[in-house]
């Protein structure tokens, strides 16, 4: 490994390589329960699948920290006569990056070839390897080459004859992208960095905080990628006095973008969110996040995200006027299988979250 991350890298690898599209976060939820359980006073799961681990504080004042578990993926809609699969997207895929990708189709019918498949992360019985193919460019005419890709045009090839596919795959089966997680230079890269890196931070903070003055609810939420649905339900059930959301954010600090388009930059520290398209964070909350970062010497930067929403917005609108803030992981190449975050930024977010919770007394006034 090129660098020695200052966080539980093996847990991050396990979380990111697990499969869990919106509404079907079971495999990730199992890891979260296992990792949170030793560090919280109570653990529960609601009817939507949100996991909430509670650390009881010395006061009735409560803070919820939320990070969504789901990743973008697909659901099978049709099996054609030749055994190719048509799909519908679960979350915001950019169809330009889908061609020539490996996938896993999650079926309910196990087969003998499923056991011991090499080179695939978190595959179990019932899972079928497949590819989203791409026709050779020299076989395409000019119109075909210039055609704008669409998700509805995606077809998955399982390398099996039509009869075998028909026996194994049904509409409603799920599809996730295949990619291992690894270290590239000083970056951690893989699929589902959005938002399993935030789930890691939530678990790491639960491990680190000791005897908090306020009650802290560590919440791993569901269905964020399809409309912040888990967070909206959670905000009603938990009804916190203060909410902090964790998520990835855009880092367009790559060729082709001007400095004004970067949003955040890798290696510059934790992102303190000021706004996105779903929320304007409470000025008093983001100012205190900044004060904590400055007093603890934690690298940080400010995030103004022009498009895209997070659980922050879902928590703010669920149960009345709740002050909200958010800490973000600067991430390149979002919603692809090569999402990349700087290891020092990951550590900075965990440090900032932990310091913020350790220093929260519940006595401050976040009203405007």
From TrEMBL:
Annotated region described as Disordered, given as residue ranges: 105-154
Keywords: Aminopeptidase, Hydrolase, Metal-binding, Protease
Gene3D superfamilies: Peptidase M42, domain 2, Zn peptidases
CDD domains: M42_Frv (cd05656)
Keyword Metal-binding included in the entry's annotation: yes
Cofactor(s) named in the record: a divalent metal cation
Bias type Basic and acidic residues, positions: 139-154
Residues of the active site: 224 (proton acceptor)
Residue sites binding Zn(2+) 2 per the record: 194, 225, 335
BP term (GO), one: proteolysis
Pfam families: Peptidase_M42 (PF05343)
Molecular function GO terms recorded: aminopeptidase activity; metal ion binding
Residues that coordinate or bind Zn(2+) 1: 68, 194, 247
Family membership noted in the UniProt record: Belongs to the peptidase M42 family.
Annotated protein name in UniProt: M42 family metallopeptidase
Phylogenetic lineage: Archaea, Methanobacteriati, Methanobacteriota, Stenosarchaea group, Halobacteria
